[in-house]
Amino acid sequence: MIFVNKEWDAIDDIIVYSNYHKYWQNKELRIKNPYFDVFSGRILDLKEGKQSAVKYFYNLINEEICKDVTICVVPSSDADKKESGIGMLGEMLAADGRKNKVYYLQRTKSIDKLAYGGCRDRQVHMKTISTLDSIDINGDIILLMDDVTTTGNSLYACREILMKKGAKTVKMFALGKAV
User: What is the domain-level CATH number for residue 25?
Assistant: First the structure.
């Protein structure tokens, strides 16, 4: 079992820590979302790679994740972006007794940012994500992490890729579920 705390919500077998509320209710009219909260703000800070947010989420979830699992993250929608806030969190978690294969999954072709209306179809991810051949995950128990999930398709696609590459088990986790 990767997580000790079973109180976290599981949505279609994706473990989610909490809800994520977008900042804008209507961006064009500059109307802020009244449900946007501190947690959602910290996720945005993580997306920007702010060290304070990385440390915040590390302190929040580190004790809940078993040692000896392999940490991987869903790659950015931007193929040129090799590091991410969720990746920085994954690296910090991996440094505490877990296997660091954080950036094993790589985006080979950029896709439109999902938060701005990009296609959420699972096949889009399957066609634009590959793996690093120099890293072996055969038999690994993997915690696949993402910052925010909406449909879950990027997580499902990455899980499928990891299983095809020989992972023993892939548990999917997102800090926030978009509501």
Answer: 3.40.50
